[in-house]
Amino acid sequence: MEMLRAIAIGLPLTVLVTILALMIGTVVALPIVAGLRSRNRLVWLMSRGLVDLLRGVPPVVWLFILYYGVSIGAIRLTALQAGVLGLGVVAAAYLAEIFRGAISSIPKGQWEASSALGFHRATVWSRIIGPQTARAVVPAYTTFAIGLLKDSSIASSIGVAEIVFMSSQYARQSGEGIMVFFVAAGVYILLSVPLGLLSRHLDIKMRKAVAR
Is residue 18 pLDDT above 90, yes or no? Predict the structure, then answer.
């Protein structure tokens, strides 16, 4: 019972870190995608360099940099803020590539036909390209979300009291060792399975919608 209580205490922060990092990643990824699709060579190079930099450095290093190295005057980021921001900016780089790939998968004929028919750019994105892109994005996006859920455990390295942190604390105090981590693994599986099922459901639903 104590073991489950320790893991349950860390559960809310695991979910919070995952959701906030995914939200930050999604929002920040959008202008990066625009940069990656820009015809301006300088903008493209800056966007490509940013993506490569964010993906090239291990997430735990970004967390350490933000937690131990970033301060604004006398203000320092808390462990939670550094964890969310660090995972969020790394997520932005990966999601930007996911979004870029989904947009690139749309046949050129769709763009040419939209232009020939004189559709406004906003209409093209909201009614033609957007829905097709969303269908292509869903599987990869939810797969990344599941991976981010597991990667949220990295935040324990800077003291965020999520599942792995609380499991480690309990293991040291109780002496029960590895058992608590098996239970924690089971909790991660229970959290991941609904996301996988939701992904399949959305993919099937969107395929039907696009096919109409």
Answer: yes
Do residues 56 and 94 touch, judged by C-beta distance below 8 A?
A: no
Residue 77 phi/psi, 5° resolution?
A: -65, 140
Query: Helix or strand or coil: residue 1?
Result: coil
The region, left, alpha or beta by phi > 0 then psi within -120 to 50, assigned to residue 118 is: left
The encoded tokens of residue 204 equal 């099937």
Cα(37)–Cα(35) distance, integer angstroms? 5
Rounded Cα–Cα distance for residues 125 and 175 (Å) = 57
- pLDDT of 35 above 90: yes
Q: Tell me how far CA of residue 93 lies from CA of 56, 117, 126, 147, 210, in angstroms.
A: 10, 34, 24, 14, 28
Cα distance between residue 16 and residue 38, in whole Å: 34
Cα–chain center distance at 154 = 14
Confidence of residue 55 (pLDDT cuts 50, 70, 90): very high
Give the separation between CA 98 and CA 202, rounded to whole angstroms.
17
- What is the C-alpha separation between 138 and 99, in angstroms, rounded? 10
